[in-house]
Each structure stands twice: as structure tokens, then as C-alpha cells.
Specification:
7 strands; 33% helix; 8 helices; alpha+beta; 5-stranded mixed beta barrel
């Protein structure tokens, strides 16, 4: 796979043309998936092992959701979750001992939960509305300037001499859409979860970019910027994929 901050090319997964709008839910408290990003997961709970088995036997799609605060008291039932999710696809699966599994999830689409469904399964299932990136009808030069401003804001947080420096330079040097670039930066920065959820919920690419830049600039102006916002340590070290998160 090589060392890089996200997967733009090595992993490609087509969105199914016959997507029913129904997808299993994998809620976690501190992990969020963005489109075009990779999330490593270590799965061991029986309900999520069942979910994995069913997903591998069908479309390999799972919607990564975020648990709302105070989820601990209801974790074994149905704790409340945020409505904004990212539908991802399992692109790698490695069985481990004791019915445990390591998987890599590739984010495909941002979506919004419209309703949860009754299911005979141990895991949760919902109907979702897929949110495609929306680009306002702005002149090309304005979006080019927006892209450049975002790159400049972000590169302030990438110190010289790091193992990941080349990956960042490759990322911002690619002619990729602004929506993809915005999600990539949101993925690799340690932003507060509330901000990441706002970015995940925003389908308007220009609005999403401006929100991200405001956050970067505010933290940059703060004397505690290095503590408030930083690059993920696994990214700084050039490790890809990062360590597996446990469910």
C-alpha cells in the first residue's frame, strides 16, 4: 500500500448502482469516517462480528456512526447516535484468533439517517439519505482561490522533516476535487469531534471548506494551537494504516 495519509488511488470501490438505502450501523464514540479515507477497525463483539459476516456476504457496506454523549449507560442497548454518518466499504478483512477480525473501511459517501429499522439481527440497521457533494455555481477562479487558501492554512500544521511530509505534498499537489481535499484534511487532523461532525454533515463543498479553514485559522491564532489542533500522531510518523481501533 505504501506510506500515505489516506487512500485516493490504491483502494477503489464503486458505489453500488442498486443501493437500497438500507445499511447496517456501526456506532463508535470517538471514531469518525470521511469519504475517501481509510479507517482500520478491530472487531470482536458478537453483534458486530455478525454484522461483518453479513456485510462480507452482500455489498460489504457499513455506515460508521458516532455515539452521542452519555452513551456508556446504554451501550448494550441502543444508545443515541448522531444522524450524520459515512457509508464505507470493507476493502480488507483479516480474521484473527478467538473470532476477532481486522478490517479496513474505505469511506464512500456521506449520508444522513432518516430512520432506524426494526431488525432481527443483533446489530442496528437504518435507512439513510446519501448526500452527494454540492458545488455552488461560483466562478472557477474563486474555487481555485478557496483551494489555495485551504492548502495554505493546512500546511502551517505540517512541520518540515516529518516522515509524512512527502505524502502531504503529494496530496495537495494532486488535481483532486476540493470536496475530497477538504475531507482528507479533516481526516488527518485532530479536530474536536463536534467540528468533525459538522464537516461530515455539510454537503456544500464551499461551505465545508470555509468551516474547516475557520477552525484551522482560529486554532492557529490561539497560543495553545499545538494542543488544540494537531496532526494525528500515526500520520506524523508516516504509519499507514494507523493502529486498529477496537469496537
Amino acid at each position: 500500500m505504501g506510506t500515505q495519509i489516506m487512500s485516493l488511488q490504491p483502494f477503489s470501490a464503486a458505489w453500488p448502482s442498486d443501493f437500497s438505502g438500507r445499511v447496517s450501523l456501526f456506532p463508535l464514540p470517538n471514531a469518525i469516517l470521511f469519504p475517501n479515507s481509510i479507517l482500520p477497525l478491530h472487531i470482536f463483539e458478537p453483534r458486530y462480528c455478525e454484522m461483518l459476516t453479513d456485510a462480507l456476504a452482500s455489498d460489504r457496506l457499513i455506515a460508521m456512526a458516532v455515539l452521542k454523549p452519555d452513551w456508556q449507560a446504554h451501550y448494550d442497548q441502543r444508545p443515541q447516535i448522531e444522524r450524520s454518518v459515512c457509508v464505507g466499504k470493507i476493502v480488507s478483512h483479516t480474521p484473527c484468533d478467538n473470532d476477532r477480525h481486522n478490517i479496513l473501511m474505505l469511506g464512500l459517501k456521506r449520508a444522513r439517517i432518516t430512520r432506524e429499522l426494526d431488525s432481527p439481527k443483533m446489530y442496528r440497521v437504518a435507512e439513510v439519505e446519501v448526500l452527494e457533494d454540492y458545488y455552488p455555481d461560483d466562478p472557477d477562479q474563486l474555487r481555485q482561490q478557496l483551494t489555495q487558501d485551504l492548502q495554505n492554512s493546512f500546511m502551517r500544521f505540517v512541520p518540515d522533516g516529518l516522515a509524512a511530509q512527502d505524502s502531504f505534498q503529494q496530496l495537495i499537489g494532486q488535481p483532486i476535487p476540493l470536496g475530497t481535499l477538504t475531507d482528507a484534511i479533516a481526516h488527518v487532523t485532530n479536530l474536536p469531534m463536534a467540528i468533525k461532525l459538522q464537516l461530515l454533515a455539510e454537503a456544500n463543498v464551499d461551505s465545508r471548506c470555509r468551516l474547516l479553514m475557520r477552525c484551522l485559522e482560529q486554532r492557529s491564532a490561539d497560543s495553545d494551537a499545538s494542543a488544540e489542533i494537531s496532526l494525528r500522531q500515526d500520520v506524523l510518523a508516516g504509519n499507514f494504516p494507523p493502529p486498529f481501533s477496537e469496537n
